[in-house]
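Good morning C.,

I know you're traveling, so I'll keep this short. The sequence:
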Amino acid sequence: MEAYAIRTLVELTRPGSIAFLRAEVSPDIDERRSGLRECLQRATAGLDTILGASRGRGETPPPLKRLLDQIVAPLYFHVVFSVLDTDETYARALVANLFSGTWHSAGQTQLSPAKSADTGEQGGGEGR
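The tokens, ready to paste straight into the viewer:
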């Protein structure tokens, strides 16, 4: 699950990779809905594989919705709003919190936009 969270973070922070934002700003409502559904399908495909493997080992994994709410949604939120310290440590903490039933370090990330290391301006990705 950690590898999934880190891979999701890496994909989200890659330049031009926020496909759901491009879908959301589409002037065509059908195109917007289609693009957002595609983004959700991509986000859940990896989780479905993980959940299936877990069940195959006789485990009882958390429901898909809980994984989306507690791992995927916070990653998207933090990346979209350039929240400081949205990094692999944060992604790992989300997974640890999910399985420990607590909300510690991942919930205490400072909610202010990241600043560019070279300009000091609020930016889209630098300083994360």
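Safe travels,
E.
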